[in-house]
Design a protein that fits this description.
By secondary structure, this protein is α/β, with parallel strands linked by helices. Helices cover 38% and strands 19% of the residues. It has a single domain, classed as putative 2-phosphosulfolactate phosphatase. It is built from ten helices and eleven strands. It binds (2R)-3-sulfolactic acid. (2R)-3-sulfolactic acid binds next to loops.
């Protein structure tokens, strides 16, 4: 028996594959944060999809802020500011969290500030734990290729909804995990990662249909945001890699190693 354990230990030590895991919600993040070099922050509906759309449309920088108070401070300094709470534009701000708000000419080349219910909070809690990169279905293939090239330990942090699990972020995380594991250069151990991968595999042929009953899809549908849902659940509309540098997100080229 002891021989078996020693063999297992030795195999573990020889295994130089990098780790990729999935954290289901920001609430669970303290359990993971010590071990990873790159944190992929995911909020498919809609923060990280809107951020990808913004960079794809030529936004220069995006400053994510967790609170409305901080968003107001930037507004007072003259910045363009988007703020969303519970799916709606917060009164007094330029826009909310719809990807379409960031696909207009007037934001090209601009610095934009954004505060959202879950997504910008996740960015904020992840920022000191590793290199933050933005993940969504919108930038899936570009992001996957970039992550493979980095060869680092990677955590997919699902923003969820008010600290609870959600399906859309988990499916996106599962898609990333599935791609990285298929290279043979990554391993994963956590049950959350296995669950994310299997959810992705069962959803991948029709993500829009699969998520029909999901809580956030229903929440946004009730706010007449069907077009946003369709956009956010369509893979590869924005081939960008937004990373956090200091207090702001910038888009980097696909061949940059961090
Ligand atoms: O929580 C967030 O960051 C948002 O994306 C939520 S919503 O899609 O705007 O409702």
């Amino acid at each position: 028996m002891q021989g078996y354990f020693l063999y297992f230990r030795a195999m573990e030590t020889l295994d130089n594959r990098k780790k990729v895991e999935v954290c289901f919600s920001p609430y669970l993040f303290p359990l993971y944060k010590e071990e990873f070099d790159i944190i992929v922050v995911i909020d498919v509906l809609r923060a990280t999809s809107a951020i990808c759309a913004a960079f794809n449309n030529g936004v220069k920088e995006l400053i994510p802020v967790p609170t409305i108070e901080e968003a107001k401070e930037y507004q007072e300094k003259g910045y363009l500011v988007g703020a969303e709470r519970k799916g709606q534009i917060v009164e007094g701000f330029d826009f909310g969290n719809s990807p379409y708000s960031y696909m207009i000419d007037s934001v090209k080349g601009q610095t934009v500030v954004l505060s959202t219910t879950n997504g910008t909070k996740s960015i904020n809690i992840a920022k000191d734990a590793g290199q933050v990169v933005i993940g969504a279905l919108s930038n899936l293939d570009t992001l996957n290729d970039w992550l493979v090239r980095q060869n680092k330990n990677i955590l997919c942090l699902c923003s969820g909804w008010q600290n609870k699990f959600n399906l859309e972020d988990t499916i996106c995380a599962g898609a990333i995990l599935d791609h990285l594991l298929a290279t043979g250069n990554y391993r994963s151990e956590e049950d959350s990662s296995i669950a994310a991968k299997y959810l992705f595999l069962s959803a991948k042929d029709n993500i829009f249909g699969y998520l029909k009953a999901s809580s956030h899809r229903r929440r946004l549908k009730n706010l007449n945001l069907n077009e946003d849902i369709k956009f956010c659940l369509t893979p590869n509309t924005a081939p960008v890699i937004p990373v956090l540098k200091g207090d702001r997100l910038v888009a980097i080229e696909a061949d940059v190693l961090i």
